[in-house]
Amino acid sequence: MKALPARPNLERLRREAKALQRACLAGDAEAVRRIALALPAAQPRGLPLGKAQTAVARGYGFASWPALRVALARPDAGEPPAVAKSAADLDAEQLAGEWFALSEAGDLNRLLRAIQVGKGRLEAARAVMQRDRGRYLAFQQVLVGGVQARHPKQRQLSAHALDSFGEAWTRPALIAAMDDPAPRVRWMAMHALSCHACGDKPEGLEAHVQGRIIAAATKDPNRKVRFHATHALAAGAVRAAIPALLEIRAHETDTKLRDAARYALWRLTGGGPLPKRPAPGV
């Protein structure tokens, strides 16, 4: 385990994670060894950036990238100025208190609007909330209930929130939401289950979840769901999806879906030049 430098810099650590990802794609033996130590179940070829960040964080003794970010936000991390960090701490505590209060009041609409803040502020506030396990579980339960709310927008935003605030026990609600009648809820649930860039996720997607996302990428009647399902397969490092993605790339008539499959295949195999990432507005 390495020690953090005396004056740690988050941007430098981001660059370290990106360099680790590139080295894994190139088959570098030392990079592959680092991934094997930090994430034994991960596939170095096609390694998502989120997992590379997790590996970097664990190399410095932190459980996850969000935990490393929160640690660097503390004054004792050696990152000046202390006054600014103190202000950041106060902001995190204020957000945590506001979100707890809204969830305890049962005001789902205001809560879903309130948590739409920048990633750094969200992660800092989440770390504060996690210190009070009882209140945090109740807060999460409100989001789980929101995935079953009457209005599709509420269900979508609740699934989106569980991308950052979810844990193992909240995953069944997202898995059920993959069958939601509203397309926007289906694809958001798949994203929340598979994306490692926000919050902690299992190292590997559950086999039955993999199968359902593969089915959505190939058979869902909504093309936007198919598009986002394809990206979820890449984000979740689902190598079992490669045959299905090859079929999409070879036979799909929709250009954007074909491009999405090509991009996902590049992420999963790490071979060839990087294709242009398709825009999400399909």
The share of residues in extended strands comes to under 5%
Helicity, as a percent range: 55-70%
* Helix and strand pattern: HHHHHHHHHHHHHHH
First and last CA, distance: 44 Å
Q: Ranges with pLDDT <50 over ≥5 residues?
A: 78-85
| Total beta strands | 0
Structural class of the secondary elements? mainly alpha
The gross shape turns out to be flat
> Helix tally?
15
Mean pLDDT: 86
Spatial extent as radius of gyration: 19 Å
- Report on the biggest sheet: none
Q: In words, what does this structure look like?
A:
- It is a single chain.
- The protein is mostly helical and 282 residues long.
- It is built from 15 helices and no strands.
- The chain has helices at 10-25, 29-38, 49-59, 65-72, 82-104, 108-114, 119-129, 133-146, 152-165, 171-177, 183-194, 207-219, 223-235, 242-251, 255-269.
- Helix 5 (82-104) packs antiparallel against helix 6.
- The chain is flat.
Could you provide a short overview of the structure?
By secondary structure, this protein is mainly α. The chain is built from 15 helices and no strands. The model is unreliable at 78-85 (pLDDT under 50).
Name the features.
282 residues
How is the secondary structure organized here?
Layout: H1 10-25, H2 29-38, H3 49-59, H4 65-72, H5 82-104, H6 108-114, H7 119-129, H8 133-146, H9 152-165, H10 171-177, H11 183-194, H12 207-219, H13 223-235, H14 242-251, H15 255-269
Helix pairs in contact: 1-2, 1-3, 2-3, 4-7, 5-6, 5-7, 5-8, 8-9, 9-11, 10-11, 11-13, 12-13, 13-15, 14-15
